[in-house]
Sequence to fold (253 residues):
Amino acid sequence: MVPQKPISQQLIYEGKAKRIFKTDQEDQVLVEFKNDTTAFNSLKREELEGKGAINCQISVHLFELLEANQIPTHFLYQAGDARMVAKLAKIIPLEVVIRNIATGSLCKQTPIAQGTQLEPPLLDLYYKDDELADPLLTEARLERLKLVSANQRFEIERLARQINDLLKSFFEQIDLVLVDFKLEFGLGPEGEILVADEISPDTCRIWDKRNQDPKAKILDKDRFREDLGGVVRAYGEILKRIQGPSSNPGNCS
Ligand code: TMP
Ligand code: ASP
Fold:
């Protein structure tokens, strides 16, 4: 159990899967991971007991991995089972998706076959706006919207590809396949680019290398999207592998 940092009650923002609160430090926020689970722009919604805490712990671990590799993130420290303290950042309204294997919307919107290895990985940018259902951006629309400068765009894409390389090999070591994932970025107090939001099975597709069954191998939010059941159990399996054998009291090896 991680000691709980008390919530200030001053809610700054409530998203579909997280609440953001003020803290006693004006440049820091408390991020609370909710059990609420949504898909298809909230058309499907359910509360899954224990999901928030698992996603928080997975995110904490992955943010620490990025920080240890000199990738700047908003993460500061874990502050409870489902809470972390993060730097206050101005979120850039872009969803940056990296795809290593073709599935999901890519296969719905293009003739690219399910399971195609994408080398180099495909990077898609979406405009983050629930009311518009996060539309895919074209180069021209991105330029027109002026969400980021050319240098910021370059840095965001460079970081996203570097994070993909890191996470892909990290997951590989624990027999997990990083199929695709979504990142969000923010600007810190000095205008520096930080990885923000969360990195969890809600925002990644992760397949189990130890299981070849096309449904059973899915350990991410597709279990919820596709009504496969066992969502929290699958997320827990990812956390268990991330934490490694040392965290398993029953392991004597
Ligand atoms: P997609 O195939 O539906 O475009 O999803 C690509 C990746 O982005 C997948 O890992 C799930 C993640 N994702 C989010 O985190 N939030 C979203 O709103 C959507 C649509 C996808
Ligand atoms: N995050 C989006 C929603 O809540 C979509 C998704 O993850 O499928 O609706």
The two ends are 24 Å apart (CA to CA). The chain has six helices and 13 strands. Residues 91-229 form a domain with the D-amino Acid Aminotransferase; Chain A, domain 1 fold (CATH 3.30.470.20). Helices lie at 51-68, 104-109, 139-145, 150-173, 222-225, 231-243.
